[in-house]
Structure formats: C-alpha cells, structure tokens
Amino acid sequence: MLKIRLRRQGATHAPFYRIVVSDSLRTPAASTIEQVGHYDPKKNPTDMKLDRERIDYWVSKGAQLSPTVKSLMKKK
Predict the structure, then answer these.
(1) pLDDT grade, residue 76 (50/70/90)?
(2) Which DSSP letter does residue 15 get?
(3) Sign of the CA dihedral running 36, 31, 45, 76
(4) What is the pLDDT of residue 69?
(5) Distance separating alpha carbons of residues 59 and 55, to the nearest angstrom
(6) Which pLDDT score, from 0 to 100, does residue 23 have?
(7) How far apart, in Å, are the Cα atoms of 58 and each of 26, 28, 49, 62, 68?
(8) What's the pTM?
(9) Are the C-beta atoms of 36 and 4 separated by less than 8 Å?
(10) What one-character DSSP code corresponds to residue 52?
(11) pLDDT tens digits, residue range 41-71?
(12) So what's the architecture of 2-68 in CATH?
C-alpha cells in the first residue's frame, strides 16, 4: 500500500520535510515514488508547498495520507 507522508531532511536542529509518496512497508528514508511537496516549520511563517493535483491523483490510486499530512492539507 502507498502512503503520502513526511520525509525528514535538514540538519540536527533545522528540520526540513519533504512530502513524498512511498511504500508503507519501507521506512520514510527509503527510496520514494514521487515528491509532492515540502514543509519547513522553522521559517516564520512556515513555508509549505503542496501539489494538490498530484496528491489527489495518488489518493485516487489508493494511497493514504498520514495523519500529519492530512492536518497540513487542512491548514493550507
């Protein structure tokens, strides 16, 4: 099953997240199918970009949103 979830990037005290489509059985750091956005919580205001077209496409193909990505989509 596919999941749309966050993949942590960045330095130790400067997190940066990519929103990716990946296999749910693999770790988030494993190879991904597609990157559909990014999220930077350290910037003020937070920097977030979501490709809703691609997210809707993957959801229509059966991918599930993680709870965190679902809450980010409600904010934007």
Answers:
(1) confident
(2) E
(3) positive
(4) 94
(5) 6
(6) 92
(7) 17, 17, 17, 7, 17
(8) 0.88
(9) yes
(10) H
(11) 998 888 999 999 999 999 999 999 999 999 9
(12) 2-Layer Sandwich (3.30)
- Integer Cα distance of 36 and 53 in angstroms: 9
Strands (E), 1-76: 2-11, 14-23, 34-40, 47-50, 64-65
Residue spans per domain, the chain: 2-68
In whole angstroms, what is the distance from residue 72 CA to residue 6 CA? 10
Please name the amino acid found at residue 19: I
CA pair distance 43, 30, nearest whole angstrom = 26
Tokens of 24: 């749910």
C-alpha dihedral, 19 to 66 to 57 to 73, nearest 10° = -70
Q: What is the pLDDT of residues 13-43, one digit of tens each?
A: 999 999 999 998 988 788 889 999 999 999 8
* Six-digit token string for 60: 């229509």
Beta strand 47-50 with 34-40 is antiparallel
